[in-house]
Design a protein that fits this description.
Deoxyribonuclease I, Chain A; DNA-binding; 6-stranded mixed sheet; alpha+beta; 14 strands; globular
Length: 259
DNA sequence: ATGGTGGCCCGGCCA
């Protein structure tokens, strides 16, 4: 079972690239972030034509997350299930082929002294509570998306340039560690220990060609799913060519039913 | 050098 995640930075602008990538990579489940669409604008029929079901959670200009699956899609939940979930449509979950899959778009903290920074930490804490309430860490669960956190210094082009900035701060990394303490594993990192493997590159200043990026798009999976993961890839090709997103697609291959 | 690129939708916000 191939599970992929991709922050597409507007699905309206990226639909052609997404259709092309699905046809070529053939994911079983694709988690999308930053669709920047209202539910009524989401192109379900484009995915139907490729043999996929889809579910979306979005309200217009900002944020927006979706699940696209060819192995079933049921039990859809939208949001954090918290009455003060006021940071926009950033989480959608569903049962896909025996795995509870979530597409998550973690808020960007902007800067350590910005009000959005504690809001980001709060959102991550609410995500952990939501998972605790809704899921069993002994079952196959995959929480995939744009975390806007580089888990450690291997995941940024130059840690020295990022001291004091968001995405690398100790509290953000501690929030990620809290999710891992609940029972999640960074599946890509289990396969590749190398530094310099990135999933996002700024549009500005030729960052992609200069290898100035970060690995902030993560597939966090429960232990049993991590143990059944056979392959992982950051598909850099999706960051190349005409009108790319600033993120590329990342996927794992796993066998949730097998050993 | 306090910029730069790209998406929203057309001035300014957001990443």
């Amino acid at each position: 079972m191939r599970i992929a995640t991709w922050n597409v930075n507007s699905l309206t602008a990226r639909l052609g690239r997404v259709e092309e990538w699905i046809s070529q990579a053939e994911p079983d489940v694709l988690c999308l972030q930053e669709t920047k669409q209202a539910d009524a604008a989401f192109p379900h029929e484009a995915f139907t034509a490729l043999g996929y079901e889809s579910a979306h959670f979005g309200d217009g200009r900002w944020n927006g997350v979706a699940l696209v699956s060819r192995v079933g899609l049921s039990g859809v939940t939208r949001g954090l299930g918290h009455e003060d979930d006021d940071q926009g449509p950033r989480l959608i979950g569903a049962d896909c082929g025996g795995v509870r899959v979530y597409s998550a778009y973690v808020p960007n903290g902007r800067a350590l002294d910005d009000e959005h920074y504690p809001a980001k930490l709060l959102w991550l804490e609410r995500l952990r509570h939501h998972l605790t309430n809704e899921c069993d860490p002994e079952q196959p669960v995959a929480v995939c998306g744009d975390y806007n956190i580089a888990p450690d210094d291997r995941d940024v082009w130059d840690p020295k340039e990022l001291v004091g900035m968001t995405h690398v701060s100790e509290p953000e990394r501690a929030a990620l560690a809290d999710l891992e303490a609940w029972g999640l594993v960074d599946a890509f990192r289990e396969v590749y220990p190398d530094a310099g493997l990135f999933s996002w590159w700024d549009y500005r200043g030729g960052s992609f060609h200069r290898h100035r990026g970060m690995r902030i798009d993560l597939l966090l999976v429960t232990r049993m799913l991590a143990e059944r993961t056979t392959y992982a890839l950051i598909d850099r090709n999706a960051r190349k060519g005409e009108k790319p997103s600033d993120h590329t697609a990342v996927f794992i291959d796993c066998d949730p039913a097998g050993g």
